């Protein structure tokens, strides 16, 4: 890979930067049992989607259901401790030391991000650009969020790496024309490998040079 290019890196949040997916899997499985008991493994169907997309695609665009879910989701997110994926901060520090532009691209809304920054106040300073659900009109797997991130960083999509753990996120990054690296933190590694060329377990021992090799 060309080492003279100016690469940028765009990170998903949950399951990539933060080790939160087990909490969300449990939450969405319960919501699936409540509203869509006909769907097996509901949490896997909605992984990577915004709440609005979940309600539109699976719950008939019902505003009352959306508000009920939002209240329960807010209660969950307000008490989470948001642990980091192993090695991610060392990797981000390596990128920053090399002047690599970095963006956070998440299906989470700004209210959730307030909880994240309260628990992890150091996190906000790591990213030059932050794209949240409130800034987009189309949820992953649409590439809009990643294209907005690249534009805000001032880097062409083909010079961007994306780190994702959800199938919807992998598709969004690839449709944006970016180089996608999957994290096998929430989905089985073999399924991730069927959807993208490179998969890592976490960021332990991972660095810029490994990324571009």
What is the CA-based Rg, rounded?
Answer: 17 Å
Give the count of structural domains. 2
- Strand arrangement within the widest β-sheet reads 3-2-1-4-5-6
Question: Could you say what the CATH architecture of the largest domain is?
Answer: 3-Layer(aba) Sandwich
- Total number of helical segments? 10
- Kindly state the percentage of residues in helix: 40-55%
The H/E string reads: EHHHHHEHEHEHEHEH
CATH topology annotation of the largest domain: Rossmann fold
Mean pLDDT: 95
The CATH superfamily of the largest domain appears as HAD superfamily/HAD-like
DSSP strand count: 6
How far is the first residue's CA from the last residue's CA? 6 Å
Principal-axes geometry comes out as: globular
Walkthrough of the structure:
It holds the Pfam family Hydrolase. It comes from Sanguibacteroides justesenii. The chain is of the alpha/beta class. It has two domains: 8-18 and 83-212, HAD superfamily/HAD-like (Rossmann fold, 3-Layer(aba) Sandwich), CATH 3.40.50.1000; 21-78. Helix content is 45%, strand content 11%. It has helices at 21-35, 42-45, 51-58, 63-79, 88-97, 110-119, 144-153, 167-175, 189-195, 208-212; strands at residues 8-11, 102-105, 129-131, 160-164, 179-183, 198-200. A six-stranded parallel beta sheet has the order 3-2-1-4-5-6, sandwiched between helices. It is globular.
Question: Any key phrases for this structure?
Answer:
Rossmann fold, HAD_sf, 2 domains, alpha/beta, 213 residues, sugar-phosphatase activity, six-stranded parallel sheet
